[in-house]
Amino acid sequence: MTLRALAEAIGAELVGGDPEAVVSNLASLSEAGPGDVTFLANKAYAAQLAATKATAAVVAKDTEPVAAALLRVDNPDLGFARVALLLKPPPARPAAGIHPSAVVSERARLGENVSIGAGTVVEDGAVIGYGTVLMPQVYIGAETVVGDDCLFYPGVRVYHQVTIGSRCIFHAGAVVGSDGFGYAWTGQGYFKIPQVGTVVVEDDVELGANVTVDRARFGETRIGMGTKLDNLVQIAHNVKLGPCCAFAAQVGIAGSAEIGAGVQMGGQSAVVGHVKVGSGLTIVGQSAISKSVPGRESGAPADRLIWIDSPAKPMREQLEEWRNIKSLGKLRKQIKDMEQRLKRIEEEEKSS
Questions:
Q1: Active-site position among 99, 160, 237, 274
Q2: CB-based burial label for 44 (10 Å; 0-12, 13-18, 19+)
Q3: Three-state secondary structure call for residue 339
Q4: What is the Cα–Cα distance from 334 to 339, expressed in whole angstroms?
Q5: % of the chain surpassing 70 pLDDT
Q6: Are 60 and 77 in contact (CB under 8 A)?
Q7: In this structure, are residues 268 and 253 in contact, taking their beta carbons and an 8 Å threshold?
């Protein structure tokens, strides 16, 4: 596309460069060359923007001109994502139809324009919505309902009696509806507690590769609309996730925890069971929430919406604690000096 067409398509202000210059590829600031589009979302990399050889860069509206043409937008991340869709559109979805090797129950109901790949199994009573794509080797259990325009990559497993909303994307290896981790000790071994509940995944949810969402012991495990879970996230039984949460890789949520709307969790962070995490919180990677934490809905101030460490505490408190720890060496030296001076004074008094 020309820069002029690209700017019009994403609603950007074009500053500098040749409006008729053609771009066709995407690259990072440091690796980009002629014909490439790059972006700057973090001002810490401003020096790289000044030195980039890209034809154009998607930047914030207050960015000063550089050698590359600038596509100024309100949100560079979002703007660059739109550029990516224009220059590098995703592969076309498979054509509608059922592969000859797929096994689809006669008692399953399929909407129009459904695509079912090789080796996929759809059990009795399952419902697959309009335009949904099940790639090869997907399993859909009995009486499970999948909404419209979903995309399940190879190897997705959805157990029985699960409800999936519309426009959901499940990446390879995701498992939804497996048994929650529940056992009773008999004195000689573990007795498996039946997990008779279900899982409800609302609209526009994306699950990364090998995400696992456990079936409830009773009632439901629920994933709120618009939530995005990175690879290897574990959601235990009876967990409730609010809308628009975003969890990075290897996050773990223990049983019966309730997570509010818009909660963000960094990689390898965790929440213990049976607690409530308020809306709008950010939990820094490798932190662990060990108690209920209020969020925006309770009027929590901004400096108590970012939690860090294990057990986690508000960022402000943790930074103060780290500063105090860092000063311990200096404080120890001061105390040692005071002790030596006091000892000299005592000796002088004795000698006099």
A1: 237
A2: exposed
A3: helix
A4: 9
A5: 100
A6: no
A7: no
pLDDT digits (tens, 9 = 90+) for 240-296: 999 999 999 999 999 999 999 999 999 999 999 999 999 999 999 999 999 999 998
Q: Which residues contact 319 (CB under 8 A, 6 or more apart)?
A: none
Q: Can 99 be counted among the known catalytic residues?
A: no
* Residue 73 three-state SS: strand
pTM of the shown model: 0.88
Q: What are phi and psi of 2, to 5 degrees?
A: -75, 160
Give the whole-angstrom CA distance, residue 283 versus residue 233.
15
pLDDT digits (tens, 9 = 90+) for 10-69: 999 999 999 999 999 999 999 999 999 999 999 889 999 999 999 999 999 999 999 999
CB burial of 304-319 (b: ≥16 within 10 Å; e: otherwise) equals: bbbbbbeebbbbeebe
SS3 at position 320:
helix
For a pLDDT cut of 90, what percent of the chain falls above it?
84
Measured CA to CA, the distance from residue 194 to residue 172 in angstroms comes to 27
Which tokens in the block code for residue 245? 């949460």
Helices marked H in 11-130 — which ranges? Answer: 46-51, 76-87
Q: Closest Cα partner for 57 from 160, 49, 336, 299?
A: 49
